[in-house]
Design brief:
By secondary structure, the protein is mainly alpha-helical. Helices cover about 75% and strands about 0% of the residues. The chain contains eleven helices and no strands.
């Protein structure tokens, strides 16, 4: 194929790839989301069919009020708990991972290989639930919000450290030397000089980990049981059981707990890509 023919084929190939990508996105994301919305506004009888049909009558307000009032406003309590859990966990991840990534990138020692192995092990080795519960019980932190916050920080720290360490490699060392010559100590060097430069990767970590922690179902189920400790994902139990399942309320609950992370992801998707690719120049 000549160069001119190759150039002429490129627009057609891009158009085909774009069309395929749009069709895949519609099948994977749009159709399931439309099914959730349609089922959430149906009455209980029609929603039991679980069919992709138009509602006979729209019961958005009635279903919304019923979901919010269920089990003494458990959904409201769950949103408060999930917000506290997400904000505290992500704040801890950002500060600790940024400091660890900065030290691992800047200070070379014989322990670096072992510490890097521990960081990678945190991504590979699955969490051990029973020993973790035993440790929390010995510390008096089982079934407490601070205990679950520490669990979320520990499980997300490895991924965050790798991102921050890769991004710190793109910051010139001359900047550190200039700050040290001006009299900056280690803490001032990190928090006043380096930390503000990590903005793009901080946004990436905040958005990605906020969605993970907010949508986490397993860890709150194991480490924070109890109605007053419920998080948003655990409220799905309210409308689902072995014998009677209220699908209209179940899907309304799914819709309500999906909207906050979805909005956050839509607003910050460009910053996520920028943060993930910015550290790829140097690794």
């Amino acid at each position: 194929m000549s160069t001119a023919e190759l150039v002429n084929h490129r627009p057609a190939r891009k158009w085909i790839l774009s069309t395929v990508a749009i069709l895949v996105s519609i099948v994977v994301f749009i159709i399931p989301f439309a099914f959730i919305v349609l089922t959430a506004v149906k009455d209980r009888t029609q929603s039991a069919d679980l069919s992709f049909s138009w509602p006979h009558q729209f019961r958005f307000v009635q279903n919304f009020v019923e979901v919010v009032k269920a089990r003494d406003f458990m959904l409201v309590i769950a949103f408060i708990n999930s917000t506290i859990l997400t904000v505290a966990s992500v704040t801890g991840m950002v500060v600790l991972a940024a400091m660890a990534g900065f030290v691992l990138q800047r200070r070379k020692s014989r322990w670096n290989g072992f510490i890097n192995f521990l960081v990678l092990a945190g991504l590979i080795i699955p969490p051990a639930v029973v020993p973790t519960i035993w440790v929390l019980q010995k510390l008096g932190m089982f079934k407490t919000m601070p205990g679950l916050i520490l669990i979320e920080i520990a499980y997300g720290l490895s991924f965050c450290i790798l991102l921050f360490r890769a991004f710190v490699a793109t910051i010139p060392r001359e900047l550190d030397e200039a700050a040290i010559i001006d009299g900056a100590g280690p803490l001032r060097l990190f928090f006043q000089v380096v930390f503000p430069l990590l903005r793009s990767v901080i946004v990436t970590v905040v958005v990605v980990q906020s969605v993970n922690v907010f949508n986490d179902f397993v860890n709150p189920l194991y480490f924070l049981p109890g109605d007053q400790n419920a998080t948003v994902q655990l409220t799905l139990y309210n409308f689902s059981s072995q014998f009677t399942t209220q699908y209209n309320l179940l899907f309304m609950d799914i819709l309500l707990i999906t909207i906050p992370p979805l909005i956050m992801f839509l607003f910050f998707n460009r910053q996520i890509v920028a943060g993930l690719t910015s550290g790829a120049i140097k690794g």
